[in-house]
Specification:
Two copies of one chain form a homodimer.
Chain A: E1 2-4, E2 14-15, E3 17-22, E4 28-33, E5 36-41, E6 44-51, H1 55-63, E7 65-70, H2 76-82, H3 92-96, E8 100-102, E9 109-111, E10 116-127, E11 131-144, H4 156-159, E12 163-165, E13 170-180
Antiparallel strand pairs in A: 2-12, 3-4, 3-7, 5-6, 6-11, 7-10, 8-9, 10-11, 12-13
Chain lengths: 192, 192
């Protein structure tokens, strides 16, 4: 018998993403978001949901671009900080000591110290309720060489992204390798 | 210097979600999706992106409902299998030995053996490209008692959800506790 927990936004895991934007004066800003997911393979798109009250909301609307930067677990306190204060009040790059990198593809900054940055051009947006969903078309992904495997793709054990638990408000790291996708399930296929 | 990887759908982590629906004959079906994320807090909504070619696509369109069930890592091979074959050809519940539970709230089945099930009524959908994004309003979350902590909320270390690495096609488990959100970053606040 399962227990009813109510209409809560519970999903495990959600990613810890840092959204990079420029404000109207050109100041780079970052905010942390977990309401993020890939939403299309072709064109490659990522959905980021933000409240209208955030500084980032206006920045994306005017610049039509943003980055989704993935902090490694070494930067958990920075990512947490980026979700606690507003770019209206603070220069978060200056306060945290991290470094904005100008994207050559989109009008948005990347975080130099984070292993992965996804460069997005605003594709569309949808007002859902408290949150507005921004769909970004992924123009490129930039990655530190140190997080790439032999196949040239990032390895999650080298990226060391952070997992966020909604409601419980906890961060966890990545755990053990379980198996290969599109392979583990073969034993259940009768036609295999 | 970061390396350009091209316009790939790389995000770490993405969740392994099993989408439950009924077909036109009332047969329960499940398919695995990783292009999933929370997209609004109020109303609580979750976005699930699927290809039009999937059996689930038609089921959601006609039933206006779906569940998002989270397998624990013990069920990684079942979740992988659910992403390998189509409900057009196979009764995946029967083939896998797992048990469909009828939701009392929405016209969709839940997976009894999985610790968490999110019951969704179709809120809206958006054709993006290869994928259509279905936005589900979360009407309730059902959880096994065994995955709840002292505060009555799920604990990720008890849920043991699966992480999917896009492109690399790997599954990982949840790792160590890093820290509390809205807390770790306090030391960087000058005004704290």
């Amino acid at each position: 018998m399962k227990k009813s927990l109510g209409n809560k936004t519970l999903l495990y895991p959600t990613p810890v993403c840092v959204i990079g934007t420029y404000d109207s004066s050109g100041k780079p800003n970052v905010m942390t978001a977990a309401w993020v997911g890939i939403c299309c393979s072709s064109p490659p798109c990522i959905a980021v949901s933000l409240r209208k009250a955030t500084y980032t909301y206006g920045n994306i609307m005017s610049r039509k671009a943003f980055s989704v930067c993935l902090p490694s677990e070494n930067y958990a306190r920075h990512a947490d900080y980026f979700g606690m204060v507003s770019g209206k009040d603070v220069d978060k790059f200056a306060a945290s000591g991290l470094t904005p990198l100008k994207s050559e593809l989109v009008d948005a900054p990347l975080v130099k110290e984070f292993p992965i940055a996804i460069e997005c051009r605003l594709h569309s947006f949808l007002e859902i309720g408290l949150h507005t969903e921004f769909i970004g078309e992924i123009l490129d992904v930039k990655a530190d060489e140190s997080c790439l495997g032999a196949d040239g793709l990032p390895e999650i054990e080298k990226v060391l992204p952070i997992l966020f638990s909604p409601e419980g408000r906890r961060y966890n790291g990545v755990g053990r390798f379980i198996g290969r996708a599109f392979s583990l399930g073969r034993e259940l296929r009768k036609d295999a």
